[in-house]
Each structure stands twice: as C-alpha cells, then as structure tokens.
Amino acid sequence: MIAPVCALWKRHRGLCIAFVVTAFITLVFALQFILSVFYWRNPENRNLELKGWMTLGHVAIVYDIPAEELAEELDLRPDSRSRRMMLRQIARIKGISLEELEDEIADALDDYEDEKAERDE
User: Fold this and answer.
1) What does the alpha-carbon distance between residue 79 and residue 81 come to, in Å, rounded to a whole number?
2) Are 78 and 72 spatial neighbours (Cβ–Cβ below 8 Å)?
3) Is the separation of the CB atoms in 70 and 54 below 8 Å?
4) How far is it, in rounded angstroms, from Cα 14 to Cα 9?
5) In this structure, are 28 and 51 located in the same domain?
6) Which of 14, 99, 116, 121 has CA atoms 20 to 30 A from the CA of 86?
7) What is the pLDDT of residues 87-119, one digit of tens each?
8) Which residues pair with 86 in a beta bridge?
9) pLDDT, position 20
10) Does Membrane count among this protein's keywords (predicted)?
11) Tens digit of pLDDT for each residue in 19-56?
C-alpha cells in the first residue's frame, strides 16, 4: 500500500500536493455545511429575539419570509447588499432606534403572514 503512494509522490509531487490541498478545502466546506444544517434545524435557533448584530437575511431565514419582501416592507432596496446589512446599520440609515425598527419588522412579518394566509385560502 505504501509503495504505490511513494511512487506517485516521486513522479507527481505537485499533483499530490494539489490533491491534498483540494481535499482539505473540500472537507472544510463540507464541515461548514453540516454545521449550518444542524444550526438551522435546531428549534432553539428559530424565533429568536431580534438583536442589532443580526442581518436582514438572518431575520428572513429565522422568520421564514423572503428577504426581498422584508426589504421592500422596510423601504430598502431588495438587493443582496441590503440583505447583508445588520439591523443596527439599517436603523442608523433610517434614522430610527433599533426598537422602532423591530416594530417595523414585526409589522412586516404580520403583513406577510396575512398575505400568505389569504393566498392559501
């Protein structure tokens, strides 16, 4: 078993190094994916209290609302940039407190739930 690996190492050293590096990077991404699946499947990580460090995308995932619709409800551009903004940044841009922004988000979630219920009927 060792002899073929040594022969491969002697003949194709660069290729072996590239393979090991690629395998390591693949393992890192696989581990990151598995950990994120376990995080989001845990019910304790759903319906969290809103915090200033949360991004708009995080809130959208936690409360199961499309990020674009949440951004529209908050009068933001529904692009990927606004999805990555933290709630405290959004509050600062809008010139309101974090509590007022949380109230706006709660209203947006209520509106979305009402629309969703109407569509399902």
Assistant:
1) 5
2) yes
3) no
4) 8
5) no
6) 116
7) 898 899 889 998 999 899 888 888 888 888 888
8) 55
9) 96
10) yes
11) 999 999 999 999 999 998 888 787 776 666 788 888 88
